[in-house]
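User: structure tokens for this one?
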Amino acid sequence: MADNRPSRERPHPDVVISQTSDGTRGRSRAESFQRMGSGKQKPSPPGLSRIRSIGRNERYGRLYPTQPPQHISPNRSAEGSQHLSPKRIDLAHARRPSLNFARLPPLTTVASSGEQTANDSQYDYVERSPDESGTTQAQFDTSSWTPITRPSSGAFGDNMYQYHELRKMDFRLVRLFATKMSTIKCQIIHESLISPPKYTAISYAWGDVDDKKEIQVNDITVPVTASLFGALQAVRERGEDKLVWVDALCINQQSRDERNQQVGLMTGIYAQAEEVAIWLGPEENNSNLAIEFLEELRSEQGFPDQISDLISSPNKEQAIRAMVLLFQRDYWNRLWVVQEVYNARVIKVLCGSTKLPWETYKMAADAFRYYKDDLDAYFSGDSSSPSAFDYAQALAYEGPNSLLASDSLKRLGADALLSVMRVCRRKHTSEPRDRVFGILGVLPENVRDEFIVDYSLSIKKIYTDVIDILLHATERLDCICEAIHFPRRTNTANLPSWLPDWSQNSEITALGYSFDFAAGGNSKARHQFLRNRNELEISAVYISSIQQHGVAVGTMCTLADYLMAFLNWRALLLGSVSRENSEIRRMEEAFCRTLSLGQFPKRWKGKPEDWVTTCYHEFASHLHKRLPQLQLDDNLRSYLDAGVKIKPNPRQFFQSNFGSRMMGRCLCITDDGDIGMGTGFMLPNDLVVVPFGCRTPIIIRKEKDNPGRYRFVGDVYVDGYMHGEAIKNWETGKTELHKFVLI
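Assistant:
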């Protein structure tokens, strides 16, 4: 589902504001910040987003193992499920990094004759004073909120209200008045983040920006999105007023300077909050059943057998279906959610009228991931359903398990920035700069300090800074492989071919961080920027050129797409080898290794002939079932009765070991007869090289009109060159080292 959430860089659709009464834009200068605290047939599941589920195992960086939840025996094996790979980011409960703020650009002071300066009394802020109990209470200057009459826009009415400037380290809070009627009434105040009062930070998805409801802010009627209205209604209390922070009301979205400042403080705002309230939305799609199921799972914590029985119980089919839809709500796909949850000390999750602690959701998500094999078996009874295998994927990896935890990032070290960028790439934001600014709150302080939050900077500069930092921190070239050029997309920011466009929600990611490849051996990247960082010179060992390639598999594909690609690729290979049995057998082994990118379940490790049998059996049997009218050749037909037994879910096995790895790629044969599988953007005569400091070979293309310059095409798996073979050939003098300038 497309993200309708506007960015914090753009004017917010929830509130229409004016900035100062005379129409000028006052600014204050931001100084350096203080560092703070330092078997029955199962019914078909609902149609799910295949984009979210296919190939999840390839989308994550070099990550670390998840410790089994406390209620699960550590002896339980996940053998055969690569989705339980020890490289995934662990969603641990610890989310309390030291409180440091992103660097902010200097603000300029603009003052006209008679205009108050940044430290004068123009703020809608009055110093807090002790009440009778000695507790400091906020005082509200309602006179600072002056209704302004403007011609009606036809959308927001005539009454507008103005924001006053924030002083250094100040932020706004909303005082939600206690529930006395259906109308939501509130008041906006200024507070200091250095010594703030107790408040709740709201984390929510904007939803449909055209679906509006009205609230009263300082006695002025203001339209807000229905999602924000629901969130405010959910956190409002009957007996007392409540202080909350919510971006739509607390940030002046029309002031770029203020957005720069407040986005830089976002880490501190969520880390300082007494509680973060996640608003998932209203009760719908049987979410009440999902909530009840969550509580049942929590009540069985410490009893793994009961949890397994609950998950696989036929009586829970409807509840599990509701869980899938709950875990796929828009909220979980927001980019900003990642740091909001990551920095929270205490989290409550609100859905409709329910309110549960984060740990309840997290424990269930961990259980779904740990018992994914059981879920695969549970849904194997309906393997013909196109979304049946997606069902377990959504439960295991969507919802809470799509976010991050601090434990994993601390272990990643220099790779933290790239790993976070990879994991968050499919999160939604409408502002390309937020691909970087929106994740600063989860990065280590030494990485965060390299970025200045400034929405006036070009997208090209911000994204180039990311690669520049990664190249120097890791001394590896793998980061440029995140420049995905297939399927083709319009490059509106005029980025070089080697520079990843992080704003693209790509369905595939680079190979190097998904598997244990080491094409560049232990070498370090040899690179330098040219022409103001518009060009990148690299050192690499030349392997060969692309002689021919097969059809490319798209990213929005079905089983039939994989099957047709298999037939095309196999025919291409058979036409390139002699008819000798030994030659054909070597080709088949290399072909089947390439289809699975050299990865095998434990059962087939070290057994290449058995893997060929399994591979051909899988494709032949699916072709026979899906396309019975298609005439298979004698060789393929012989594998139909090969006696291969795949349990528990043959469709999931196929998708995990073949489908997800073929997606977005095509088969190729080099001039030297090597077999490979890489980006669908490749063309004949493209060069295949292994750069120093890169885990995989890459494909580059000569620029016809620019001699000595090349375009980056994508990464590629080349059978026989994935574990340092090219570097060894160079070390022994069998090949030479070349320099290539990428543009």
